[in-house]
Specification:
This protein is of the alpha/beta class and 258 residues long. It contains 9 helices and 8 strands.
Length: 258
């Protein structure tokens, strides 16, 4: 049987992700520096879980574009790179190994699913790569100095105190006003807002490391994440001594299948 074709916007997004996209460089007006530092997004862009990646990818592109606008003339270059893990643990581990070999990659955001995140974690830990995990409850992941857990705890998820849907807040709507243009149609979701904040947080940590040491490193970025207080769309992001964002907001969950 012939495989059903995805709608055109999804076919284009899947092609972008499969080819491993290097997106949007922040650079100085007087010419690109010799070295370009990278933030990696790893997520599924194919198969049943592809919407997870499509919710995050345009939001992170917007985060980098917004940083370009804020930092015109700054002597800094950051590239946002997206990788497809197909929601498959074996592939996730292979992708993680490829990322770890690139010394210019300073931080990873992903993998946006439990099985793939757990498969990739040992690789990142061995490579000294900090990992921002936006969507998994802290209890689902081991505690480690390089693992930063942004989602609310299982206890908070169960207390029924939902915050307003973040994609509907005025700040998020303003920040993500161009989301549909970059996503080729689909609107932003709550996951998009979290992805935007995660990308902005990663950029802020890299900038702070540069300000402190002159050039960023994986260890330096991890140290800045442990100390940072970042004012994002979802509130002030600050990690506790266990690398957990204890005040992460709880918002309505997406319907099953999304």
């Amino acid at each position: 049987m012939r495989k059903p074709m995805l709608p055109a916007p999804f076919r284009r997004a899947a092609l972008w992700a499969t080819c491993v996209l290097a997106m949007l460089i922040l650079t100085s007006a007087c010419g690109a520096p010799a070295r370009v530092f990278k933030i990696a997004l790893v997520a599924p862009f194919e198969g049943r879980s592809r919407q997870i990646g499509y919710d995050a990818f345009p939001a992170m592109r917007l985060a980098v574009r917004d940083e370009i606008a804020r930092s015109a003339g700054a002597r800094l270059a950051i590239t946002f790179v997206a990788y497809n893990d197909d929601a498959d643990p074996a592939r996730a581990a292979r992708v993680a190994r490829n990322i770890a070999l690139d010394d210019d990659t300073l931080i990873v955001i992903g993998h946006l699913a439990l099985s793939t995140t757990l498969a990739a974690l040992p690789v990142y830990v061995d490579a000294g790569l900090p990992l921002l995990v936006p969507h998994l409850a802290p209890e689902q992941l081991p505690e480690h100095a390089l693992i930063f857990r942004m989602a609310p705890s299982a206890a908070r998820l169960g207390d029924g105190q939902d915050a307003p849907a973040p994609e509907r807040s005025p700040a998020a709507q303003q920040a993500l006003a161009r989301f549909a243009e970059l996503s080729l149609g689909p609107p932003a979701t709550a996951r998009s807002v979290v992805a935007y904040d995660a990308a902005q947080l990663a950029i802020a940590a890299i900038r702070a490391d540069i300000a402190r040491h002159g050039a960023p490193s994986r260890a330096g970025v991890a140290a800045e994440l442990r100390a940072i207080r970042f004012n994002g769309l979802l509130g002030v992001i600050h990690f506790d001594s266990h690398n957990i964002w204890a005040d992460a907001p709880v918002f309505p969950r997406a319907p099953a299948g999304e």
